[in-house]
Write a structure and sequence with these properties.
Four copies of one chain form a homotetramer.
Chain A lengths: L3 H13 L8 H17 L9 H22 L3 H15 L2 H4 L10
GO biological process, one term (chains A, B, C, D): nucleoside triphosphate catabolic process
GO molecular function (chains A, B, C, D): nucleoside triphosphate diphosphatase activity
InterPro entries (chains A, B, C, D): dCTP_Pyrophosphatase, DCTPP
């Protein structure tokens, strides 16, 4: 179960600023893509990146993910575990071991 | 604190398939962007989207975020809380209330 | 056929700065995603955006697209026309008219 | 000047399918990000990618870029050249030569 501490801290933060009005699922989805690209930018020209910058950008992506999960009324940990079960069947360990091949080409 | 249950389930899943070799920080950052766009695709032509599809795509983004956090040796909840403190100073409640304006234009 | 003027201007610009070394196809693909998100950011919280900002960000996406096309030795106009023919068969006008449905659900 | 052939081919294609209604600047911006990520996916786990797949995904990004340029009433070649002049001042050749450093750290 996701720690309610972070969820509650985010709710309070958003409420204080009356920002919930902007947090439609679509706007949150756009925000996740925007922040994901800022994370990617740490690696734009090379594989090594400044670790502090990576952590900060990752935090931004996670923040919007948690806001969207809350908006949808789902537990982020639970949907990750649910999806893992689906992925388990798409990528049986004996076939997928050591291979980055997409499931439809396994 | 993030629930170790999900982190451990992901570690086991990756280990069974010998996939850690592909999970460089850069590849994980690319994956987060790729999945973020699949989430965005639920809203490509309209603001309303199939909720089950949104949950599944959000789960994919979160999964890669958790993998990257683990790879960097950070607690996802902690970096979100740390970043929230930074954002608190950039967006003082009295100035930011009800406004979606970026901090450098507040 | 794409106007060689722009292609040549970009080649000269890159050569002057000895930047071709950074322009691997992968780095250019990352750059296209990064710039695409900066374009998307113009619309982060609303459907209306500052037109000048949109034009500038669109120019950045196009620039990296043209650099990648050149790197791959393809004519950008030609690959667009080639893809259009493929899309024509996936979305026959009589079935696709007025519908944003993806081809596999038509 | 951009070849009107491609612009006109796209206009005809969109008109036949009555798709202009979906092509708001925001939806086109979302589409560009979505296609950019499909291009990035060619490189998800490695630096080498299937060239045909890369060309096809690049064509999709370019297509939406051209649709957006047309929607905004701008010539794609012209905005690229205009932006190049701006970038020229941000990255003077003598300072930027051989360096991938962002302009604010030059």
């Amino acid at each position: 179960m996701t720690d309610p501490l972070v969820r509650d801290a985010l709710r309070a933060f958003v409420a204080e600023r009356e920002w919930a009005q902007f947090h439609t699922p679509e706007n949150l989805a756009k925000s996740i893509s925007i922040e994901a690209a800022e994370l990617l930018e740490c690696f734009q020209w090379n594989a090594d990146a400044d670790t502090d910058a990576v952590k900060e950008e990752l935090a931004d992506v996670l923040t919007y993910c948690l806001l969207l999960a809350d908006r949808l009324g789902v537990d982020p940990d639970q949907i990750v575990l649910d999806k893992l079960e689906l992925t388990r069947t798409k990528y049986p360990a004996d076939r997928a071991r050591g291979r980055s091949t997409k499931y439809d080409a396994l």
